[in-house]
Design brief:
Blueprint: H1 11-20, H2 29-35, E1 38-40, E2 46-48, H3 49-59, H4 73-78, H5 82-104, E3 108-115, E4 118-123, E5 133-140, E6 146-149
Parallel strand pairs: 2-6
Antiparallel strand pairs: 1-2, 3-4, 3-5, 5-6
Helix pairs in contact: 3-5
Amino acid sequence: MSTPKPRQVGLLQRDATDFFGPPIYAYTDETAVEDGFLVPLNNRDRITRAAYVALAKAAEFQTNPPNYWTVDLFGYCRAKTGEARALAMAGGLVDVNRHTVERDGGPLAFYAIRSATGYVRLVEVEPADAATFDTYWLEANERGGVTVMLPGDH
């Protein structure tokens, strides 16, 4: 029986495989979606469960999209729940920033400014008052797409 060859991802992967041998177990995107750690936005983009829950909680009673936050407008307007609005918000964030993340790899940080009724806007410079915002990261993933996450998910 032949040993399967590990996926070659770059010099570091080859060196680690040469040194340690083939991986015993790999936690793949498919497994993470099945486990519920990742929520698919489409066939290649993902959002971590924690980021999805945070966005959904903020958007639960937010009928209008936040200012300065590109959303999937059709998805947001059709949405009846915070969960559906969270998918529209994450999808818009990914679509607008895909090229930058694909070019640089990430993480690319964004700061969602909170109010009593949800998120007010999205900014790229960290605000001085840490109690008024949530941080979201965008990072390239193994499917050739982008994953939205909280810093603690990394």
